[in-house]
Amino acid sequence: MTYGLTRLLRTEHDWSDLLCFLAELDPEPLRSALLLGPGRITVWREAAVKAGRGAPAGRADFIVLLDDIERAVMEMKLGAGAHGNQFAAYEAWADAKGIPVSARFLVGPNTDPIPNEPTHWTRRLTVPGLLAGWNRSTDDLAQLLSVRALQQFTQLEDEATGPANHTSIALSDALRLRRLASMTQATAPPGTIFAPKQRSEAGAANICAWRKTADGYVVAEIQRQNPRSPRGGTGTPFEIRIMVGAQGATPEADGELADQHRGWLARRSFVQYAGSTVQTMVVAPEDDGFKTKKSRGKGHPRYYGYKGGGQGSSAVLRSTVDLNDMVTVFSAALQYLATYPEQ
Known about the structure:
With about 350 residues, the chain is an alpha+beta fold. The chain is about 35% helix and about 20% strand.
């Protein structure tokens, strides 16, 4: 990918800003996409919305106005899922403004499901589809930018499915893990709960799923190792953590629970359960996957985990795994959670 353009279009907000700029250069492709009539088009970015006193508040990615009247609301979701009560705020505001459901757009990289998406928002618009609208723009700059940006986005999508060590920016990881979540959630055992946030405490893209147990919960999580590393967090392999924990417990208490199930938590136990295909994708599959030395982190000194998030083992994936490989391994981890030995 073009290095300079990669630097400019690193995040979901960057792509939203680009679409706003393209609409300012030439509003006609946006008019066509939103099926708006004649009139002057204005776009507000990160617009504060609140229906009235006591109503939820939020910031919508795009508010589109026609002759100064709000006619459409658009929310961009490239890597993240819906979070908090953001759509409740948008809904209340759109109702107050008389914006029909057909003019409330949830825009993704494609039409695949978005975690916790509102089911009645329109999903017919995608980022590449919108960009393509300016490929034939009468504005030379808008046309040039859209062509180059569409090429860039196509390469991001390719990175999201290809080998993990070919990823250039964190947004590719976010696209990859969203697809992984959609594909593994469809086949997960009943009782598996997926976290809606899809972001770790460090702000990196991750997928976390868990099951309730008699003594707490069991967790499977996948993300980059040390996501704050160089190259925007993409220079390390992915890892899967399998952890146990209890609601509101301290790391020490979670560590005691992990001690009881140390054999089940061990990496080698998971790999043996998952079979030979998964074994070839995991680094050192015969090891237990626990810490070899004490850490100054918030977890237990013998296990990988988080304060209030469980303790357990780590299975590092080979750097060459692609999306399909990761789906295979994480699906096996979700199946493995269902074998947790209740006591």
